[in-house]
Amino acid sequence: ALVAANTGWCSSFVRRLALWRLCGLPTAAMPTGVGEVVRHIEFAQVSTYRGRPVFVPTALPQLRAERAFATVELPLHLNWSNPGRRFNMADRYQRRLVYEAVLTEGRPEDVLAYIDGTLLIDLWDELILPSVLRAAWDDAIAGTRDAGEA
């Protein structure tokens, strides 16, 4: 419940968070910065040979620079082999490890929280991914690359 006496940024944020959750949207994707551009991104679910779904966005997400290059600790479902490890996303090698984990094991909210489309395209040829996963993402990557070259 919202308290009517709250004013300012905090109450505004609480209202947006409540509305975001009411709509069933992942809170990891909720914009928090003033002037942040938000576009709706949907996900296609693609089945793999292992029977696990892969979630591919209709458009590549864009993170604010502070988030794209932050130090992050991945949730257990993404980093089960080394829980508690922190990754410096400003470091290309560590960002590559995070992107590989998110693309391989992640859900839509993970993609929205950790993947920046521009940085993904930059790393795409270096990522070690199963061929079926790479094929599932190829259209999104190629479409963005083509649009950038136009």
Compute the number of strand runs. Answer: 4
Oligomer: single chain
Distance between the termini: 49 Å
- Average per-residue pLDDT, rounded, comes to 78
> Radius of gyration, Cα only, in angstroms?
17 Å
Main β-sheet, spatial strand arrangement? 1-2
> Which bin fits the share of residues in helices?
40-55%
Largest sheet, in brief, is: 2 strands, antiparallel
Would you tell me the structural class of the helices and strands? mainly alpha
3D shape? globular
How is this structure best described in words?
This protein has 6 helices and 4 strands; from the N terminus they run H-E-E-H-E-E-H-H-H-H. With 150 residues, the protein is mainly alpha-helical. The chain is globular.
Set out the fold topology.
Layout: H1 8-22, E1 43-47, E2 53-57, H2 65-68, E3 71-73, E4 86-88, H3 92-105, H4 108-114, H5 117-123, H6 131-149
Antiparallel strand pairs: 1-2, 3-4
Name its key features:
150 residues, mainly alpha, two-stranded antiparallel sheet
Summarize the structure.
This protein is 44% helix and 11% strand. With 150 residues, it is mainly alpha-helical.
